[in-house]
Amino acid sequence: MGYLLDTNILSSLIKQDSRLLVRLDNVHYRRENLFISCINYL
Q1: Is 34 left (phi over 0), alpha (psi -120 to 50) or beta?
Q2: Quick check: 41 pLDDT over 80?
Q3: pLDDT in the model for residue 37
Q4: Which of 11, 24, 32, 42 is packed most tightly, with the most Cβ within 10 A?
Q5: For the packed helices 18-29 and 7-14, what is the interaxial angle rounded to 10 degrees?
Q6: Taking the model in full, what pTM does it have?
Q7: Residue ranges per domain, the chain?
Q8: Whole-number average pLDDT of the chain
Q9: Are the C-beta atoms of residues 40 and 6 closer than 8 Å to each other?
Q10: Which of 38, 37, 27, 29 is nearest to 2 (CA)?
């Protein structure tokens, strides 16, 4: 399974939101994929 990260999640990631970091650690532990759209990448 994979997750497409939206703009709000990416903003929280840049701000180092601790709740989000814990959730992303869980995703990494389960070896799942994270994706961002090319629009957010720009």
Answers
A1: beta
A2: no
A3: 86
A4: 24
A5: 110
A6: 0.72
A7: 2-41
A8: 90
A9: yes
A10: 27
